[in-house]
Amino acid sequence: MSQTTAPAKIYAYEAMFMISQAVAADFSGAIAHINEILSRGHAELISMKKWDERRLAYEIKGQKRAIFILAYFKATGEGFAHIERDCNLSEKIMRALIVRCDHLTIEEMQAADGRKDLEIEAKLRAERAVAPVEQEIPEPAGAAIDDMDEE
Question: Nearest to residue 72, comparing CAs of 26, 34, 40?
């Protein structure tokens, strides 16, 4: 006699990932890390966008500012538990909040998609990190006084 198991229910989830500015220096790597966590939990990513970059109300792990990434995905209950565990173990994610998202339709979740904007921001951050910083070299303190003596 064979026993059949009911297929696992798939739910929609809303996740807010908080990453530090140090991790965001490699922004594309941080986004890839979040995608990897979701794929390991067999989640189907619906949309992802940068929600905001804010000053924190209190320091977390010595960080005063953080970048918030909002993601909507579908996963089973087992996949959700795997994702939550990976977020807790991750050194790149400072905090994560994942809740079921029954109040939104798939179309509303898809409307929040900003993955192209994430790619653009990752490129800009990478270019900014590579570009040399032009520094203005201050004149020696005595140079201005020497010029006044010649007059």
Answer: 34
Q: What is the per-residue pLDDT across 108-139, written as a single tens digit (0 to 9) for each?
A: 999 989 899 989 988 898 888 777 655 555 55
pTM: 0.78
Nearest to 44 by CA among 109, 96, 114: 109
Enumerate helices (H) and strands (E) in the chain, giving the number of each: 6, 4
For 113, counting Cβ atoms within 10 Å of its Cβ (0-12 exposed, 13-18 middle, 19+ buried), the class is middle
Instruction: Map residue 111 onto helix, strand or coil.
Output: helix
Distance (Å, rounded) from C-alpha 39 to C-alpha 59?
A: 30
CA–CA distances in Å: residue 115 to residues 48, 64, 119, 149: 6, 26, 6, 62
* CA 86 vs CA 120, 122, 148: distances in Å: 27, 23, 66
Angstrom distance (rounded) from CA 56 to CA 19: 11
Burial of 115 (0-12, 13-18, 19+ CB in 10 A): middle
> What angle (nearest 5°) sits at the alpha carbon of residue 78, between those of residues 74 and 84?
75
